[in-house]
Design a protein that fits this description.
The protein is an all-alpha fold. Helix content is 83%, strand content 0%. The protein has one domain.
């Protein structure tokens, strides 16, 4: 039971640490546009 709980907690932690699609949108806008446009996304 403890082993399963730790496994699920580890998977949840990896999910929280991995970047999502919004991260790539912000990076794209930061590279192309001025700072304010990147902050608005």
């Amino acid at each position: 039971m403890l082993e399963t709980s730790l496994f699920v907690a580890g998977i949840a932690a990896l999910g929280m640490l991995s970047p999502g699609p919004d991260f790539f949108l912000v990076i794209k806008n930061a590279a192309r546009y001025p700072r304010l446009a990147a902050m608005m996304t």
